[in-house]
Amino acid sequence: AVTRDVAGAEPRAFTLKELVRLLDAMPSTEPADGPAPTERVAAADRLRRGGFEGNPYDEDVVDPLGMPLESYRAVAWELDEWCGRLVDGLYGKVPAPAATRDEEEWVGGEP
After folding, report:
1. How many of the other CB atoms lie within 10 Å of CB of 6?
2. Of the candidates 95, 74, 93, 78, which has an alpha carbon nearest to the alpha carbon of residue 24?
3. Contact 85, 18 (CB under 8 A)
4. Which has more pLDDT, 93 or 20?
5. Could you tell me if 23 and 52 are in contact, meaning their C-beta atoms sit under 8 angstroms apart?
6. Which of the residues 14, 30, 35, 65 could staple to 39 if both were Cys, CB 3.0 to 4.6 A apart?
7. Helical pair 69-91 and 16-25, crossing angle rounded to 10 deg
8. Which pLDDT score is estimated for 29?
9. Half-sphere exposure (CA, 13 Å, Cβ side) for 39?
């Protein structure tokens, strides 16, 4: 609907899963020296136009409206996973910072 209603939006309009799959198919980038996210999105559009098919049968996220609470939790987990991959694809994978002593004690259950 966005590409139909907004002139010029097509190169920047993706489903979440489509963009992540395109970014996953591209060479990875280094967080500090990599291209800007807008350049990565433009490269993803070029890849899409070049015939990358991804998985057209799994581009949507389930709408849990009217479903049990566990369905909402499952959708939240799925979105969290896809959004994490999106950030990695746009900015590069950043190693997790080392835990501080206070955090280690908290995780261990001994605050």
Report:
1. 11
2. 93
3. no
4. 20
5. no
6. 35
7. 40
8. 76
9. 9
CA distances from 30 to 21, 42, 88, 107 (A): 18, 17, 10, 30
* Residue with tokens 């998985």, as numbered in its chain: 55
Counted residue by residue, the chain has a size of 111
**Residue 54 identity (one-letter amino acid):** G
Cβ(89)–Cβ(40) below 8 Å: yes
**The predicted structure's pLDDT at residue 110:** 57
CB 86, CB 19: distance < 8 Å = yes
Structure tokens, 45: 């559009």
Q: Read off the pLDDT of residues 83-107 as tens digits, 9 standing for 90 and up.
A: 999 999 999 887 777 766 666 666 6
